[in-house]
Amino acid sequence: xxxxxxxxxxxxxxxxxxxxxxxxxxxxxxxxxxxxxxxxxxxxxxxxxxxxxxxxxxxxxxxxxxxxxxxxxxxxxxxxxxxxxxxxxxxxxxxxxxxxxxxxxxxxxxxxxxxxxxxxxxxxxxxxxxxxxxxxxxxxxxx
Length: 143
Fold this sequence. Notes:
The chain has 143 residues and is mostly beta strands. It has a single domain (3-142), classed as Porin (Beta Barrel). It has strands at 14-25, 28-42, 45-55, 61-71, 78-91, 97-109, 115-125, 140-142. The protein has an eight-stranded antiparallel sheet with strand order 1-2-3-4-5-6-7-8, with no helix packed on it.
């Protein structure tokens, strides 16, 4: 069959992700490692949890983010998705931050149970002390 007949988003399917990269916070560069897990509770509907650890700067930063994502059914290799998330950020020596956000993008199936995705994320910080943090409402491209 074709890749679009994949069961990558069927009920009972699991998602495991790993992240290695870099980022900037407090005008400093950080090394980021992360992991995530998701479970499709129904066809095309995923509940997930992701975590990141930022190191190498003045502060130790940890992010934990539960999420929900819906992959729109499409009989093509490109599968649009939408989602929402809550994010808790723990920062050593500073107040924790809470945020909510949404995401939208497209997954391209590359195999029976593998895919590549790209999209946009919009995050709104809920408890931002602007004397410490800059407000963040900027869409961020993700891949």
